[in-house]
Amino acid sequence: MSVSVVMTVNGEVVAKHVEDRTLLVEFLREHLRLTGTHVGCDTSQCGACVVHANGKSLKSCTALAVQMDGAEITTIEGLANGDVLHPMQEAFRQNHGLQCGFCTPGMVMSAVDLVNENPDPSETEIREWLEGNICRCTGYHNIVKSISAGAKAMREGDPT
Amino acid sequence: MTDNNRGIGEAVVRREDSRFLQGRGQYTDDMNLAGQLFACIVRSQHAHATINSIDGSAAMAMDGVVSVLTHEDFAAYGGVPCGWGVNNKDGSPMAEPKHPILAEGVARHVGDPVAVVIAESPIIARNAAEHVQVSYSELPAVVSMQQALDASAKPIHGDTESNLCFDWELGDREAVDQAIAGAHHVTKLELINNRLVPNAMEPRCAIGDYNSATGDHTLYTTSQNPHVIRLLMGAFVLQIPEHKLRVVSPDVGGGFGSKIYHYAEEAIVTVAAMKLGKPVKWTSDRTEAFISDAHGRDHITTVELALDREGNFLALRESTHANMGAYLSTFAPAVPTYLHSTLLAGQYRTPVIYAEVKAVFTNTVVVDAYRGAGRPEASYLVERVVETAAREMGIDPVELRRKNFIKSFPHDTPVALTYDSGDYAATLDQAMIASDYAGFEARRAEAKQRGKLRGIGIACYVEACGVAPSNIAGALGARAGLYEAATIRVNPTGSISVLTGSHSHGQGHETTFSQLVADKLGIDYDSIDVVHGDTNRIPFGMGTYGSRSLAVGGTAIVNAVDKIIAKGKKIAAHLLEASEADIEFENGEFRVAGTDKMKPFAEIALTAYVPHNFPLEELEPGLEETAFYDPKNFTFPAGTYVCEVEIDPDTGTTEIVSFHASDDFGRIINPMIVEGQVHGGLVQGIGQALLEGCVYDTDSGQLISGSYMDYTMPRADDVPSFSVDTCVTECTHNPLGVKGCGEAGAIGAPPAVMNAIIDALSDYNVRHLDMPATPNKIWSIIHKASAAAA
Amino acid sequence: MYEFSYHKASSLEDARSTLATAEDGKLLAGGMTLLPTMKQRLAAPTVLVDLTGIDMAGIEGKGDNIVVGAMTTHAAVASSSLVQQTIPALAALAEGIGDPQVRNRGTIGGSVANADPAADYPAALVGLGATVVTSKRSLSAEEFFTGMFETALAEDEIITAVSFPVPEAAAYQKFPNPASRYAIVGVFVAKTANGIRVAVTGAGGSVFRNAEMEQALASNFSPDAVKNIAVDSSGLNEDIHASAEYRAHLVGVMASRAVAAM
């Protein structure tokens, strides 16, 4: 069974026919070829697929594309401002907050949502917030450091 | 111009991050080829069963299904090969049962591939896979190693006599037996090194492609070593010669060993693409990964340490059972033997050591190298038995270690290795200070006020990295060489492509290797590009595992750079009308010694490609050099880790309150990347100690911990931030003086954590506790002790 | 996922009638359990009736009750100043459900209807003596939860709200499963107008009250009063992370900690 959906993805309006059962992550990866959003598990736990829907973080593996009809979606591809990285992306780069890069898109999108909610999170708050994002490479140390630095940069409106 | 800020020793931010941070990396599953079909694998739901029949007709009848493949479709091909042979004590070779691509008459573990459905979409393939009718007759499953070796157990393979794969030994048994018999004190421990699931965040994926006009195969795969896959799959499985098989490993989302091996799915998509004339893609989901990726560890060990009255180590004896799983994975036999028992000296002068290892087949997923591979198991048993001996003899555990340290190098151990360099007292001292070891008792007392049990544990590990000298590896059973290759391609305008056989799947090679070349050639870091992961673009390679990329792959790069400089000097001598012997190369300039006559590197490069004024009679045009480097020895990183824990006695929960790591990795190229490697290794080690454990139902052979709902992956709130530092003793046998850092954390952390837990529980008379030290286990100990005391 | 047809309900009646005519219809609220279950092919409804189009989200005070609309997300409960002021234990419980992305999507109605034996909300409902309001009736939490993943809901009955009486004081303590982060044991303790209530989730097949603890607290409201009350482990859940005995022990510890937190 198919259905038409219209949503705004990274600022562009897209309209597609999808199956009712198409997941948002499948829509992004296969229909829009936005492959920055990853799939690392099938139990909705790893968080590699986190995107923003109407400004809030969401696991795109656990939402149907049709449920997002009319929504504004931001993926990792839409976070930077042209060539200028978002402060959170830049903070991950400066603080070695990633290694293999696979969990990174979800980590960054989740981190931005955290700072939107809590502009000055403590280390404990950052670690607790990341319950839904699993990284196997970094040991989280530099992710936490990156998010602290990214939060500071976001507070200060400093693009670097 | 010299790039002073981005040379050796600088914490250069990683160039690969730009693409990863913007979702512009390209992992295998991100690729789709035109006309691509999708494979779904029908896997055994039984741990052990006879396959009576496979009927794919209902699946084939479904819309969009293109093919159903079974063992018969692969009958012409070899099985999945093992890359390492181990001999029994009597010199006979190990049992090496056939490992078919698809199960041939018998399924031997839950997840064993039985059939393949190929269809026009992933969802059609998966639906159809459910309609493949497989008739099984269940057989008794041997799940534990004890079950497998029981006299009544039937061999799970028809072509082996028993479930024993090999019974191997190393060291002087008689000398060890004598030393133990006559010792003042012998500490004996029985311990389990828990089975782990590697869980790289990117699930495996493979795409096969075939050009029927040229006969060229291409395999895109999530591999740590594409050339090794080309060799194993090409030569041993499908008989495709190297020039007809291209293997590409693009961005790979973590490996930790699990992506070294050649897996059946790679052969399946390669063959299917050829049969069907269309590309065929297979992507694992996480559930499938749990039952098809090689697992790690899974040893059961008895260890004895003999000491004299003063605490000098006299002998160590190990007896280990190592689970191989249902088949032999690529490196599996090497892990509990040559990568394990050879490390039993640890940092100590133990004069005699004997190890015997029995490898066992069971109806479980294959077990192979996982971060550390044999060395975590060695470090764990050595550091646990040393700690226990110290407690039993009433000697300070730090002093007992210090007393027995190897102090002069090179040092020949009784288990076949020669440590070339190290300063174990230096890392220990540094760790003692950084962790305020001396102040611990005050912290313990303060914690007690809060109702918490605080403990401190240390571990002094050594590991063998930079695998491996090919001559040693070959003598020990490796069926391939373990060198590395690199090409430096200087382009006409002076930019450089570094083609390396090492493969980066998180390690940051594009950055580190560029730093090396920038430093050596004195040229701009941004003019250097690193190319890896494609057998058609790279001359050769053995890939990335065993913390070998810098020590072996980096050395190959440096050697190729040296060849570039040598040729550049010849060109410069001609251009500057000087003798080649008088040409010096420094900071990107070729200069006639003692003069201001100079040619910059870029001009030499251009001259090589625009040879209007070029010594053609002596030199060919172009500036490109390849080097193969085979190391003379392993490298031996070492360090001391100090862990402090607090246990909540009401719930048995352990919190790691601090963790300090002092490592000696030799010379460091990029300290930021090295620290990141340590952090990641530590959390995998802490995960093993506290959280992770692969659990099978011992009756049915079903994997109980088969998803993240049950298998505890370490998360951000399970671990603290870390304190890490380094000391440097340079490796003596590679030109960079580097040792390797990728596995250390996973090797040193488990014993440090477990020693801290045992220390915290010192009031409860606990001698040993197996990993993972879950709250339930710790609570049971406390509860039983409290009940006994009441 | 198997094929299904998706229907976004415009009203309760639309949802009810769609469900009634579907061969195997399921209601979709936040989807935090249903969608993963369908992805794993452990559930295969033919029709999904999405409730997000029906206005059932929101939190309001009604007399001595806080009424939480069925489609209110965990994040909305956690961040509601009304809940934080009146039943802070409920806000804290919601803040501890799943991860931030689950809290952004998951709803109280969905959680309650699913009746997972290790979910957090059932402890709050039973602990506070809440009322489940459905499209047909109102029933007490204890009538509502009938077993493991089982409730008193009829096939075509839809939860519309949960009404929580404001307690004098309450607290919830959870010992999470290290992998799934669901409750191995969660204990909700409340001082209510109708006495002290102790509700336990995670430990058994379904949420249950512990009368012995309630009585002990009635005579001596202190952590020590419950800490060492022996809980019978027979019939409690057992898995690779926690034995029944360990769960029984944790009930006392979590109850005692909840009391200490009040």
Structural account:
The complex is a heterotrimer of chains A (160), B (790) and C (262). Chain A has 160 residues and is an alpha+beta fold. Chain A has helices at residues 24-31, 87-94, 104-117, 123-129, 141-156, and strands at residues 2-9, 12-19, 50-53, 56-59, 72-74. Chain A has 5 helices and 5 strands; from the N terminus they run ββαβββαααα. Chain A has a 5-stranded mixed β-sheet, sandwiched between helices. In chain A, a hairpin with a 2-residue loop joins strand 1 and strand 2. In chain A, helix 3 crosses helix 5. With 790 residues, chain B is an alpha+beta fold. In chain B, the strands form 7 sheets. In chain B, strands 3-5-1-12-9-10-11 form a 7-stranded mixed β-sheet. A 5-stranded mixed β-sheet of chain B has the order 7-15-14-13-8, sandwiched between helices. Chain B has a 4-stranded mixed β-sheet with strand order 18-26-27-28, sandwiched between helices. In chain B, helix 14 (509-521) packs parallel to helix 15 and helix 17 crosses helix 18. The longest helix of chain B has 27 residues, at 549-575. Chain C has a 5-stranded antiparallel β-sheet with strand order 4-5-10-6-7. In chain C, strands 11-12-13-14 form a 4-stranded antiparallel β-sheet, sandwiched between helices. Chain C has 262 residues and is of the alpha+beta class. Chain C folds into 3 domains: 5-50, 2-Layer Sandwich (Uridine Diphospho-n-acetylenolpyruvylglucosamine Reductase, domain 2), CATH 3.30.43.10; 59-165, Uridine Diphospho-n-acetylenolpyruvylglucosamine Reductase, domain 3; 169-261, Enolase-like, domain 1, CATH 3.30.390. Chain C is 35% helix and 26% strand.
